Amino acid sequence: MSETLTKMIFGRLSLESLPLHEPIVVATFAGVALGGIALIGALTYFRLWGYLWKEWFTTVDHKRIGIMYMVLGLVMLLRGFADAIMMRIQQSMAFGANEGYLNAHHYDQIFTAHGVIMIFFVAMPFVTGLMNFVVPLQIGARDVSFPFLNNFSFWMTASGAALVMASLFIGEFARTGWLAMAPLSGLDYSPDVGVDYYIWALQIAGVGTLLSGVNLVATIVKMRAPGMGLMKMPIFTWTALATNILIVAAFPVLTAVLAMLSLDRYVGTQFFTNTGGGNPMMYVNMIWIWGHPEVYILILPAFGIFSEVTSTFSGKRLFGYTSMVYAVLVITILSYLVWLHHFFTMGSGASVNSFFGITTMIISIPTGAKIFNWLFTMYKGRIRYELPMMWTVAFMLTFVIGGMTGVMLAVPPADFVLHNSLFLIAHFHNVIIGGVLFGMFAGINYWWPKAFGFKLDKKWGLVSFWCWVVGFWVAFTPLYILGLMGVTRRLRHFEDPSLQIWFVIAAIGAAIIAVGIAAFLLQIFVSIRNREALRDDSGDPWQGRTLEWATSSPPAAYNFPFTPVIHDLDAWYDMKSRGAKRPVTGYLPIHMPKNTGTGIILAGFSLVIGFAMIWYIWWLAAAAFLGLLITAIVHTFNYDRDFYISAEEVTETENARTQVLARLGA
Predict the structure, then answer these.
(1) pLDDT tens by residue, 253-303
(2) What string of DSSP letters covers 147-195?
């Protein structure tokens, strides 16, 4: 075959694209391949493909889509944390004559992939999954506004994750840091496929995130139960609304900046190059105009989780509900006015730095007010230290430190010293792990019985909890110290041997966190194995206060047989206090959306387009784009999109629940 024909068929793809010279990658590929073959074999042997396709892959049920988001986040957590462990081991051994076990080329890919995966494909799926599962239940809706769009959004996110995973075995990933700063991400400095993997993975996943944001905003605004005014919404729903407004406003900026970077790389425009009349600082501004709201996109839902958990396990209405709502709204607005604090050191001038330093300090005020609201909710409450509450208390202690170090970094003179140091890394992880991940673990332990009908095992949950909390501080306290000593980030080798002890301690902390992740997986395994002993048939194992606890666990496909009517904040607690009776007759047929495979097919075509564009396989990109267009057009002619659950089936389901509640004496 001629070289021209080969290039036309395969583009840049060749045998040299396989990283066969990297033994770590080859061993990982062998492990993943064997695991994949075993999984496919097991699914085939137990004949689960049909079930998965009908019930999960094509589902438009917000609850199942939320669970799939969580599964995706958990799988990607294992990959992202593996990168973190590799970095910690490298930094703990690479001193003086010892170069460690990772060369610079490989190490740069690892720290970039770690950041991208943890933010885009761990934190975002966790957050989106919980919002998808909980919000419609909390507002008394039967599903989200656009059920098909919800399915499509998930599969687009999963396709972006698949593209990142493919970069491990075919080609390489970006070596630019998780924000792919120009001009480092331009063709001059990154002529290989790494940045292209970055661009297309984020563009594809970004479409899913943006559409999910539109969907959830419409759901919260238009589908609340009768009587649920804005100031009667649960705080988690409020934080979800603010989060998705931020998504709708911020993600188009990310799409635009990545599109401009794509044009620089593919067609020779000069948006972000000094030599061609562009400006790299434009990239820095645009990526952080998206990037700082993104931090609040992640943390606001966690604030909502902590509010629900604190109120429930203190047995009290949330203290200062109105102030909490206004704090959420103030944070939402101010999150757009602080982006420049990420580059105080880049010569913007004293006036600009002063403005952004002041706004950064101001945004800490509503955040701090929330801490006081939670503390006053706990004050004189009958606190039950179940796992969700323990994660919440650990968050308060951890996040306060992270917030204080953030205020330090908001002072431009201090930032001139600490910027680009390991102090910054410790601060960021303090906020993201101590805030977002602790929030996700609180939420998973809190809502698991609602999703599956049984609680999570407490013993293994405690092991995971203590390993995470202790491991976090052992891992990141040394980084604060090293940062104050002036040690910069993203280095794989150090000359000063006196620093090594701190990196060794940090590696020990990462190992303790690894035990915490293993304990969490064991907690899930043991809970599923012992599900009958952990069973909750009441639907309300925690004596909850919001509407999701009013229905069965797991909820029926239609969520509520009758649309609930809301009279007060904490709707379910209010109903219980009033002695409201659950209706047991008069059920009507319920209108529901049908499952569809169009979402996964469209996302599959998008994945192929992304892969083809990365490798310059133009015919494949064109064919996949044509397939995407045809699928989308055909779907518009599909009018068989809904069905009715018969009154008889609803009656049968609800009668079974009535019998269970009677047996429990509820």
Answers:
(1) 999 999 999 999 999 999 998 888 899 999 999 999 999 999 999 999 999
(2) HHHHHHHHHHHHHHHHHHHHTTTSS----STTTT-TTTTSTTT--SSHH
